[in-house]
Description:
With 331 residues, chain A is mainly alpha-helical.
Amino acid sequence: MTEMDTQEHQIDLGHLMAFDPLHHFPSPPPSREELVKECLQKGTVLVQLIADALFNLPSTEDIDGPLVKLPPPMTRLPREKHLPKPKPPTKWELFAKAKGIKNRKKDKIVYDEQTGTWKRRHGYDRVNDDKDIPIIEAKMTDEPGEDPFAKRQAEKRKRVEKHEKNRLQNLKQAAKVGALPSHIQLAATALPITGTQAAPKKASKNELQDIASMAAAATASGGKFDKKLLGEKPEKHKGKYRKFLPVVEGTGIGSQERQQTEKVLNRLISKNSHEILNVDKAINMYNVKKEKKRKNQRGKDSSTSSKLNPKKQLQKKSLKKGGSSKKGKSK
Amino acid sequence: MRPLDENETTALFEKLFKFTGNNLKNIVENPSYEGPDPNAGRYCFRLQKNRVYYVSESMVKRATNIGRAQLVSLGTCIGKFTKGGNFHLTVQSVNLLAANAKHKVWLKPTSEMSFLYGNHVLKGGLGRITENIVAGDGVVVFSMSDVPLGFGIAAKSTQDCRKLDPNGIVVLHQSDIGEYLRMEDEL
Protein backbone atom coordinates (compact mmCIF):
# COMPACT_ATOMS: atom_id res chain seq x y z
CA MET A 1 0.00 0.00 0.00
CA THR A 2 2.77 2.45 0.94
CA GLU A 3 4.76 1.54 -2.18
CA MET A 4 1.83 2.29 -4.33
CA ASP A 5 1.39 5.62 -2.55
CA THR A 6 4.95 6.86 -3.02
CA GLN A 7 5.04 5.74 -6.62
CA GLU A 8 1.77 7.14 -7.76
CA HIS A 9 1.42 10.27 -5.65
CA GLN A 10 2.49 13.41 -7.38
CA ILE A 11 3.96 15.91 -4.97
CA ASP A 12 4.46 19.45 -6.23
CA LEU A 13 6.33 21.24 -3.46
CA GLY A 14 6.33 24.54 -5.36
CA HIS A 15 2.57 24.71 -4.82
CA LEU A 16 2.68 22.61 -1.59
CA MET A 17 0.41 20.16 -3.38
CA ALA A 18 0.03 16.35 -3.30
CA PHE A 19 -2.09 14.61 -5.92
CA ASP A 20 -3.22 11.00 -6.01
CA PRO A 21 -4.40 10.21 -9.56
CA LEU A 22 -5.41 6.64 -8.77
CA HIS A 23 -7.75 7.36 -5.94
CA HIS A 24 -11.30 6.22 -6.28
CA PHE A 25 -13.99 5.42 -3.80
CA PRO A 26 -14.67 1.65 -3.84
CA SER A 27 -18.32 2.34 -3.19
CA PRO A 28 -20.21 5.55 -2.77
CA PRO A 29 -20.30 6.11 1.00
CA PRO A 30 -23.74 5.97 2.57
CA SER A 31 -23.90 9.39 4.27
CA ARG A 32 -22.33 12.77 4.17
CA GLU A 33 -20.46 12.23 7.41
CA GLU A 34 -18.94 8.99 6.14
CA LEU A 35 -17.81 10.77 3.00
CA VAL A 36 -16.22 13.56 5.03
CA LYS A 37 -14.45 11.04 7.28
CA GLU A 38 -13.01 9.13 4.34
CA CYS A 39 -11.87 12.33 2.64
CA LEU A 40 -10.20 13.48 5.84
CA GLN A 41 -8.36 10.19 6.17
CA LYS A 42 -7.09 10.34 2.63
CA GLY A 43 -6.19 14.02 3.09
CA THR A 44 -4.14 13.37 6.23
CA VAL A 45 -2.11 10.76 4.35
CA LEU A 46 -1.36 13.22 1.60
CA VAL A 47 -0.50 16.06 4.03
CA GLN A 48 1.86 13.71 5.85
CA LEU A 49 3.59 13.00 2.57
CA ILE A 50 4.01 16.73 1.92
CA ALA A 51 5.43 17.26 5.40
CA ASP A 52 7.91 14.42 4.92
CA ALA A 53 9.05 15.87 1.61
CA LEU A 54 9.40 19.35 3.16
CA PHE A 55 11.55 18.12 6.00
CA ASN A 56 13.75 16.32 3.54
CA LEU A 57 14.66 19.63 1.88
CA PRO A 58 17.85 21.42 3.03
CA SER A 59 16.96 24.05 5.62
CA THR A 60 18.61 27.17 7.07
CA GLU A 61 18.27 28.32 10.67
CA ASP A 62 16.17 31.39 11.41
CA ILE A 63 14.90 33.14 14.57
CA ASP A 64 11.51 31.46 14.27
CA GLY A 65 12.73 28.03 13.24
CA PRO A 66 14.20 26.18 10.24
CA LEU A 67 13.66 28.01 6.96
CA VAL A 68 13.20 26.07 3.70
CA LYS A 69 13.34 27.39 0.14
CA LEU A 70 10.65 25.68 -1.96
CA PRO A 71 11.54 24.43 -5.43
CA PRO A 72 9.84 26.04 -8.42
CA PRO A 73 6.38 24.61 -9.13
CA MET A 74 5.92 21.92 -11.72
CA THR A 75 2.20 22.06 -12.47
CA ARG A 76 0.81 24.94 -14.45
CA LEU A 77 -2.32 26.37 -12.90
CA PRO A 78 -5.05 27.94 -15.03
CA ARG A 79 -5.38 31.76 -15.20
CA GLU A 80 -6.83 33.48 -12.22
CA LYS A 81 -8.01 36.64 -13.98
CA HIS A 82 -9.40 37.09 -17.48
CA LEU A 83 -7.27 37.89 -20.49
CA PRO A 84 -6.81 41.63 -20.97
CA LYS A 85 -9.33 42.98 -23.42
CA PRO A 86 -7.88 44.85 -26.35
CA LYS A 87 -8.40 48.53 -25.77
CA PRO A 88 -10.34 50.48 -28.38
CA PRO A 89 -8.22 52.71 -30.62
CA THR A 90 -7.98 56.35 -29.49
CA LYS A 91 -9.32 59.20 -31.58
CA TRP A 92 -5.87 60.03 -32.87
CA GLU A 93 -5.17 56.43 -33.79
CA LEU A 94 -8.38 56.28 -35.79
CA PHE A 95 -7.51 59.53 -37.55
CA ALA A 96 -3.95 58.41 -38.29
CA LYS A 97 -5.17 55.13 -39.71
CA ALA A 98 -7.67 56.90 -41.89
CA LYS A 99 -5.10 59.37 -43.20
CA GLY A 100 -2.31 56.83 -43.42
CA ILE A 101 0.01 58.74 -41.01
CA LYS A 102 2.88 56.62 -39.75
CA ASN A 103 4.62 57.08 -36.42
CA ARG A 104 8.15 58.44 -36.89
CA LYS A 105 10.89 57.83 -34.37
CA LYS A 106 12.15 61.07 -32.80
CA ASP A 107 15.63 61.77 -31.47
CA LYS A 108 16.21 62.77 -27.90
CA ILE A 109 18.86 65.37 -28.83
CA VAL A 110 18.00 67.98 -31.45
CA TYR A 111 20.12 70.69 -33.01
CA ASP A 112 19.06 74.15 -31.86
CA GLU A 113 19.45 76.77 -34.61
CA GLN A 114 19.31 79.75 -32.27
CA THR A 115 22.24 78.82 -30.07
CA GLY A 116 23.96 76.43 -32.47
CA THR A 117 24.20 73.60 -29.93
CA TRP A 118 22.61 70.24 -29.48
CA LYS A 119 19.83 70.44 -26.92
CA ARG A 120 17.35 67.87 -25.71
CA ARG A 121 13.88 67.80 -27.16
CA HIS A 122 11.94 67.80 -23.86
CA GLY A 123 12.78 68.91 -20.33
CA TYR A 124 15.32 71.28 -18.81
CA ASP A 125 17.06 73.54 -21.31
CA ARG A 126 15.02 72.30 -24.24
CA VAL A 127 15.08 73.26 -27.92
CA ASN A 128 12.12 75.51 -28.62
CA ASP A 129 11.37 76.79 -25.15
CA ASP A 130 8.99 79.73 -24.90
CA LYS A 131 11.16 81.56 -22.40
CA ASP A 132 14.14 81.65 -24.77
CA ILE A 133 12.43 83.88 -27.30
CA PRO A 134 13.90 87.37 -26.82
CA ILE A 135 11.88 89.34 -29.37
CA ILE A 136 8.51 88.79 -31.00
CA GLU A 137 7.96 91.03 -34.00
CA ALA A 138 4.65 92.81 -34.15
CA LYS A 139 2.33 92.00 -37.01
CA MET A 140 -0.25 94.26 -38.61
CA THR A 141 -3.00 92.12 -37.13
CA ASP A 142 -1.83 92.68 -33.52
CA GLU A 143 -3.64 95.03 -31.14
CA PRO A 144 -1.43 97.60 -29.41
CA GLY A 145 -2.20 96.72 -25.78
CA GLU A 146 -1.60 92.95 -26.00
CA ASP A 147 1.37 91.15 -24.51
CA PRO A 148 2.53 88.60 -27.13
CA PHE A 149 4.46 86.54 -24.59
CA ALA A 150 1.42 86.24 -22.37
CA LYS A 151 -0.61 85.34 -25.41
CA ARG A 152 1.76 82.51 -26.29
CA GLN A 153 1.60 81.20 -22.73
CA ALA A 154 -2.18 81.34 -22.73
CA GLU A 155 -2.33 79.46 -26.02
CA LYS A 156 -0.02 76.80 -24.71
CA ARG A 157 -2.13 76.40 -21.59
CA LYS A 158 -5.25 76.00 -23.73
CA ARG A 159 -3.55 73.39 -25.88
CA VAL A 160 -2.46 71.42 -22.83
CA GLU A 161 -5.99 71.51 -21.46
CA LYS A 162 -7.36 70.24 -24.74
CA HIS A 163 -4.87 67.37 -24.79
CA GLU A 164 -5.82 66.43 -21.24
CA LYS A 165 -9.51 66.45 -22.14
CA ASN A 166 -8.93 64.18 -25.10
CA ARG A 167 -6.90 61.79 -22.99
CA LEU A 168 -9.71 61.51 -20.48
CA GLN A 169 -12.22 60.92 -23.23
CA ASN A 170 -10.11 58.07 -24.58
CA LEU A 171 -9.94 56.52 -21.14
CA LYS A 172 -13.70 56.77 -20.79
CA GLN A 173 -14.14 54.96 -24.09
CA ALA A 174 -11.82 52.24 -22.92
CA ALA A 175 -13.62 51.97 -19.60
CA LYS A 176 -16.93 51.49 -21.42
CA VAL A 177 -15.56 48.38 -23.10
CA GLY A 178 -13.89 47.29 -19.87
CA ALA A 179 -10.35 47.73 -21.15
CA LEU A 180 -8.95 50.32 -18.72
CA PRO A 181 -5.19 50.04 -18.14
CA SER A 182 -4.51 48.37 -14.81
CA HIS A 183 -2.87 51.27 -12.97
CA ILE A 184 -5.83 53.53 -13.66
CA GLN A 185 -8.21 50.75 -12.64
CA LEU A 186 -6.43 50.48 -9.30
CA ALA A 187 -6.45 54.23 -8.76
CA ALA A 188 -10.16 54.34 -9.50
CA THR A 189 -10.94 51.58 -6.99
CA ALA A 190 -9.02 53.50 -4.33
CA LEU A 191 -11.58 56.31 -4.53
CA PRO A 192 -14.17 56.21 -1.78
CA ILE A 193 -17.69 55.31 -2.85
CA THR A 194 -19.28 58.07 -0.78
CA GLY A 195 -17.84 61.38 0.34
CA THR A 196 -15.16 63.37 -1.43
CA GLN A 197 -13.98 62.22 -4.79
CA ALA A 198 -10.37 63.23 -4.13
CA ALA A 199 -7.92 60.34 -4.01
CA PRO A 200 -6.13 59.86 -0.67
CA LYS A 201 -2.75 61.60 -0.68
CA LYS A 202 0.34 59.45 -0.50
CA ALA A 203 2.36 60.24 2.61
CA SER A 204 5.97 61.29 1.99
CA LYS A 205 8.92 59.65 3.70
CA ASN A 206 9.30 62.42 6.26
CA GLU A 207 5.61 62.43 7.05
CA LEU A 208 5.68 58.68 7.57
CA GLN A 209 8.65 58.96 9.88
CA ASP A 210 6.90 61.61 11.96
CA ILE A 211 3.75 59.55 12.19
CA ALA A 212 5.71 56.43 13.08
CA SER A 213 7.56 58.22 15.87
CA MET A 214 4.30 59.60 17.22
CA ALA A 215 2.84 56.12 17.22
CA ALA A 216 5.92 54.77 18.96
CA ALA A 217 5.43 57.28 21.78
CA ALA A 218 1.76 56.34 22.19
CA THR A 219 2.40 53.80 24.94
CA ALA A 220 1.64 54.13 28.62
CA SER A 221 5.16 55.29 29.44
CA GLY A 222 5.61 57.45 26.36
CA GLY A 223 7.71 54.89 24.51
CA LYS A 224 10.67 55.43 26.82
CA PHE A 225 11.32 51.81 27.73
CA ASP A 226 10.66 50.17 24.37
CA LYS A 227 13.50 48.56 22.48
CA LYS A 228 14.34 50.51 19.37
CA LEU A 229 14.33 48.65 16.05
CA LEU A 230 17.26 48.80 13.66
CA GLY A 231 17.38 52.10 11.85
CA GLU A 232 14.79 53.80 14.03
CA LYS A 233 15.85 57.33 14.73
CA PRO A 234 15.36 58.93 18.15
CA GLU A 235 12.35 61.22 18.39
CA LYS A 236 12.74 64.86 17.41
CA HIS A 237 10.49 66.45 20.07
CA LYS A 238 11.75 65.43 23.46
CA GLY A 239 8.62 66.81 25.10
CA LYS A 240 9.90 70.26 25.92
CA TYR A 241 8.47 72.74 23.51
CA ARG A 242 9.55 76.01 25.13
CA LYS A 243 12.80 76.81 26.80
CA PHE A 244 12.69 78.84 30.02
CA LEU A 245 15.45 80.23 32.15
CA PRO A 246 15.86 78.61 35.57
CA VAL A 247 13.83 80.29 38.30
CA VAL A 248 16.72 80.68 40.69
CA GLU A 249 20.35 80.28 39.76
CA GLY A 250 23.01 80.85 42.34
CA THR A 251 21.67 83.39 44.81
CA GLY A 252 18.76 84.59 42.73
CA ILE A 253 19.54 86.08 39.36
CA GLY A 254 21.66 83.81 37.20
CA SER A 255 24.13 84.87 34.59
CA GLN A 256 21.76 83.97 31.78
CA GLU A 257 18.98 86.09 33.14
CA ARG A 258 21.33 88.97 33.70
CA GLN A 259 22.54 88.69 30.14
CA GLN A 260 19.02 88.62 28.82
CA THR A 261 17.82 91.66 30.76
CA GLU A 262 20.94 93.56 29.81
CA LYS A 263 20.47 92.73 26.18
CA VAL A 264 16.87 93.90 26.17
CA LEU A 265 17.70 97.03 28.11
CA ASN A 266 20.52 98.03 25.83
CA ARG A 267 18.43 97.43 22.78
CA LEU A 268 15.66 99.64 24.13
CA ILE A 269 17.96 102.43 25.18
CA SER A 270 19.87 102.46 21.93
CA LYS A 271 16.59 102.49 20.01
CA ASN A 272 15.53 105.63 21.85
CA SER A 273 18.94 107.24 22.17
CA HIS A 274 18.00 109.89 19.64
CA GLU A 275 15.81 111.45 22.28
CA ILE A 276 18.72 112.13 24.61
CA LEU A 277 19.55 115.29 22.68
CA ASN A 278 16.63 117.60 23.15
CA VAL A 279 16.58 119.39 19.83
CA ASP A 280 14.03 122.04 20.79
CA LYS A 281 15.90 123.01 23.89
CA ALA A 282 19.16 123.23 21.97
CA ILE A 283 17.54 125.47 19.37
CA ASN A 284 16.07 127.71 22.07
CA MET A 285 19.39 128.14 23.78
CA TYR A 286 21.12 128.90 20.51
CA ASN A 287 18.50 131.54 19.63
CA VAL A 288 18.75 133.17 23.05
CA LYS A 289 22.52 133.39 22.74
CA LYS A 290 22.21 134.95 19.33
CA GLU A 291 19.73 137.55 20.62
CA LYS A 292 22.05 138.48 23.46
CA LYS A 293 24.97 138.88 21.10
CA ARG A 294 22.93 141.15 18.87
CA LYS A 295 21.83 143.29 21.82
CA ASN A 296 25.40 143.63 23.03
CA GLN A 297 26.48 144.77 19.59
CA ARG A 298 23.70 147.35 19.46
CA GLY A 299 24.55 148.59 22.92
CA LYS A 300 28.18 149.24 21.93
CA ASP A 301 27.28 150.98 18.68
CA SER A 302 24.76 153.42 20.18
CA SER A 303 26.79 156.59 20.93
CA THR A 304 23.77 158.78 21.83
CA SER A 305 23.30 158.03 25.45
CA SER A 306 22.31 160.11 28.45
CA LYS A 307 24.05 159.99 31.76
CA LEU A 308 21.62 157.54 33.22
CA ASN A 309 21.44 155.28 30.29
CA PRO A 310 24.94 153.74 30.40
CA LYS A 311 24.43 152.82 34.03
CA LYS A 312 21.15 151.22 33.27
CA GLN A 313 22.70 149.35 30.43
CA LEU A 314 25.51 148.19 32.67
CA GLN A 315 23.07 146.95 35.24
CA LYS A 316 21.11 145.14 32.61
CA LYS A 317 24.29 143.67 31.23
CA SER A 318 25.35 142.32 34.58
CA LEU A 319 21.98 140.79 35.21
CA LYS A 320 22.01 139.26 31.78
CA LYS A 321 25.51 138.02 32.28
CA GLY A 322 24.52 136.43 35.57
CA GLY A 323 21.43 134.98 33.97
CA SER A 324 23.31 133.54 31.02
CA SER A 325 25.95 131.99 33.22
CA LYS A 326 23.27 130.38 35.33
CA LYS A 327 21.66 129.02 32.21
CA GLY A 328 24.98 127.62 31.12
CA LYS A 329 25.36 125.80 34.42
CA SER A 330 21.88 124.37 34.37
CA LYS A 331 22.63 122.68 31.05
CA MET B 1 6.76 81.07 39.00
CA ARG B 2 9.23 81.49 36.21
CA PRO B 3 11.45 84.22 34.84
CA LEU B 4 10.28 86.13 31.79
CA ASP B 5 11.46 85.08 28.38
CA GLU B 6 12.86 87.52 25.90
CA ASN B 7 9.66 88.66 24.22
CA GLU B 8 7.95 89.16 27.55
CA THR B 9 10.90 91.10 28.92
CA THR B 10 10.86 93.33 25.85
CA ALA B 11 7.17 94.06 26.27
CA LEU B 12 7.62 94.84 29.97
CA PHE B 13 10.62 97.10 29.47
CA GLU B 14 8.97 99.00 26.67
CA LYS B 15 6.00 99.81 28.86
CA LEU B 16 8.24 100.86 31.72
CA PHE B 17 10.43 102.89 29.39
CA LYS B 18 7.48 105.06 28.46
CA PHE B 19 7.27 106.22 32.06
CA THR B 20 10.86 106.13 33.22
CA GLY B 21 13.02 106.66 30.17
CA ASN B 22 16.66 105.99 30.92
CA ASN B 23 15.89 105.58 34.61
CA LEU B 24 14.83 102.07 33.66
CA LYS B 25 18.41 101.16 34.38
CA ASN B 26 17.92 102.20 37.97
CA ILE B 27 14.88 99.98 38.27
CA VAL B 28 16.64 96.95 36.88
CA GLU B 29 19.87 97.45 38.81
CA ASN B 30 18.36 98.53 42.09
CA PRO B 31 20.33 97.14 45.02
CA SER B 32 18.10 95.40 47.53
CA TYR B 33 18.98 95.15 51.20
CA GLU B 34 16.15 92.85 52.01
CA GLY B 35 17.07 89.43 53.31
CA PRO B 36 19.72 87.86 55.48
CA ASP B 37 22.57 88.31 53.01
CA PRO B 38 24.68 91.38 53.88
CA ASN B 39 25.64 91.84 50.22
CA ALA B 40 23.08 93.80 48.30
CA GLY B 41 21.31 91.60 45.81
CA ARG B 42 19.31 92.84 42.86
CA TYR B 43 15.69 92.94 41.95
CA CYS B 44 14.34 90.61 39.34
CA PHE B 45 11.05 90.05 37.54
CA ARG B 46 9.14 86.84 37.91
CA LEU B 47 5.98 85.66 36.24
CA GLN B 48 3.32 83.80 38.21
CA LYS B 49 -0.02 83.14 36.53
CA ASN B 50 0.24 86.02 34.03
CA ARG B 51 1.20 88.53 36.69
CA VAL B 52 4.65 90.09 36.75
CA TYR B 53 6.24 90.60 40.16
CA TYR B 54 9.20 92.79 41.03
CA VAL B 55 11.04 90.82 43.70
CA SER B 56 14.43 90.86 45.29
CA GLU B 57 16.74 87.92 44.65
CA SER B 58 16.74 86.58 48.17
CA MET B 59 12.94 86.66 48.26
CA VAL B 60 12.78 84.68 45.05
CA LYS B 61 15.07 82.05 46.44
CA ARG B 62 12.91 81.64 49.50
CA ALA B 63 9.74 81.63 47.43
CA THR B 64 10.83 78.57 45.54
CA ASN B 65 9.88 76.62 48.63
CA ILE B 66 6.22 77.34 47.98
CA GLY B 67 4.47 75.24 45.40
CA ARG B 68 3.06 76.73 42.26
CA ALA B 69 -0.55 76.17 43.20
CA GLN B 70 -0.08 77.64 46.66
CA LEU B 71 1.94 80.70 45.71
CA VAL B 72 -0.36 83.72 45.53
CA SER B 73 1.92 86.71 45.32
CA LEU B 74 5.49 87.75 45.97
CA GLY B 75 7.26 91.07 46.12
CA THR B 76 5.41 93.85 44.26
CA CYS B 77 3.06 93.07 41.44
CA ILE B 78 3.72 95.57 38.68
CA GLY B 79 1.46 94.36 35.93
CA LYS B 80 -0.34 91.65 34.04
CA PHE B 81 0.05 89.94 30.71
CA THR B 82 -3.11 89.62 28.68
CA LYS B 83 -4.08 86.50 26.78
CA GLY B 84 -2.83 88.14 23.62
CA GLY B 85 0.62 88.66 25.06
CA ASN B 86 0.29 92.40 25.73
CA PHE B 87 1.49 93.85 29.00
CA HIS B 88 -0.58 96.22 31.13
CA LEU B 89 0.79 98.07 34.17
CA THR B 90 -1.41 97.94 37.23
CA VAL B 91 -1.77 100.44 40.04
CA GLN B 92 0.58 98.53 42.34
CA SER B 93 3.51 99.76 40.27
CA VAL B 94 2.82 103.41 41.13
CA ASN B 95 5.45 103.69 43.82
CA LEU B 96 8.10 102.12 41.66
CA LEU B 97 7.24 104.39 38.74
CA ALA B 98 7.00 107.49 40.92
CA ALA B 99 10.54 107.03 42.16
CA ASN B 100 11.92 106.83 38.63
CA ALA B 101 9.49 108.87 36.59
CA LYS B 102 10.69 111.16 33.87
CA HIS B 103 7.47 113.12 33.32
CA LYS B 104 5.35 114.22 36.23
CA VAL B 105 2.13 116.10 36.62
CA TRP B 106 0.84 117.69 39.83
CA LEU B 107 -2.87 118.02 40.43
CA LYS B 108 -4.74 120.74 42.27
CA PRO B 109 -6.51 119.56 45.41
CA THR B 110 -9.91 120.20 43.82
CA SER B 111 -9.41 117.74 41.00
CA GLU B 112 -7.67 115.02 42.98
CA MET B 113 -10.94 113.27 43.78
CA SER B 114 -12.04 113.40 40.17
CA PHE B 115 -8.87 111.62 39.10
CA LEU B 116 -9.20 109.08 41.88
CA TYR B 117 -12.62 108.16 40.58
CA GLY B 118 -11.13 107.25 37.23
CA ASN B 119 -11.66 110.43 35.21
CA HIS B 120 -9.06 111.97 32.96
CA VAL B 121 -7.05 115.01 34.03
CA LEU B 122 -8.43 118.28 32.64
CA LYS B 123 -6.39 121.38 32.16
CA GLY B 124 -8.31 123.17 34.88
CA GLY B 125 -7.06 120.67 37.42
CA LEU B 126 -3.44 120.90 36.44
CA GLY B 127 -1.11 122.36 39.05
CA ARG B 128 2.37 121.82 37.65
CA ILE B 129 3.72 119.92 34.75
CA THR B 130 7.27 118.99 33.78
CA GLU B 131 8.70 120.40 30.60
CA ASN B 132 9.30 118.52 27.38
CA ILE B 133 6.41 116.14 27.51
CA VAL B 134 5.55 114.73 24.11
CA ALA B 135 2.02 113.55 23.37
CA GLY B 136 1.81 109.81 24.02
CA ASP B 137 4.42 109.78 26.80
CA GLY B 138 3.83 108.02 30.08
CA VAL B 139 3.15 110.44 32.91
CA VAL B 140 2.92 109.89 36.68
CA VAL B 141 0.27 111.92 38.45
CA PHE B 142 1.03 113.44 41.88
CA SER B 143 -0.94 115.50 44.33
CA MET B 144 0.43 118.87 45.43
CA SER B 145 1.97 117.20 48.45
CA ASP B 146 3.99 114.85 46.24
CA VAL B 147 1.87 111.79 46.92
CA PRO B 148 1.71 109.58 43.82
CA LEU B 149 -1.91 109.22 42.78
CA GLY B 150 -1.58 107.16 39.64
CA PHE B 151 -0.35 107.28 36.10
CA GLY B 152 -1.56 107.85 32.58
CA ILE B 153 -0.64 108.86 29.06
CA ALA B 154 -0.09 112.46 28.08
CA ALA B 155 -2.70 113.59 25.59
CA LYS B 156 -0.91 116.79 24.63
CA SER B 157 2.63 118.06 24.80
CA THR B 158 3.61 120.70 27.34
CA GLN B 159 3.53 123.50 24.76
CA ASP B 160 0.06 122.53 23.59
CA CYS B 161 -1.15 122.34 27.16
CA ARG B 162 -0.64 126.07 27.56
CA LYS B 163 -2.89 126.81 24.59
CA LEU B 164 -5.69 124.45 25.65
CA ASP B 165 -9.05 125.59 26.95
CA PRO B 166 -9.65 124.69 30.62
CA ASN B 167 -11.78 121.67 29.84
CA GLY B 168 -9.31 119.98 27.54
CA ILE B 169 -7.90 116.60 28.52
CA VAL B 170 -4.25 116.74 29.44
CA VAL B 171 -3.58 113.24 30.79
CA LEU B 172 -5.53 110.15 29.86
CA HIS B 173 -6.18 108.13 32.97
CA GLN B 174 -4.71 104.62 33.08
CA SER B 175 -4.50 103.71 36.73
CA ASP B 176 -5.04 105.42 40.08
CA ILE B 177 -4.85 104.46 43.72
CA GLY B 178 -8.65 104.57 43.99
CA GLU B 179 -8.58 101.24 42.23
CA TYR B 180 -7.56 99.62 45.48
CA LEU B 181 -11.12 100.23 46.62
CA ARG B 182 -12.99 100.02 43.35
CA MET B 183 -11.34 96.99 41.80
CA GLU B 184 -10.20 95.13 44.85
CA ASP B 185 -11.01 91.77 43.32
CA GLU B 186 -9.24 92.31 40.06
CA LEU B 187 -5.91 93.41 41.48
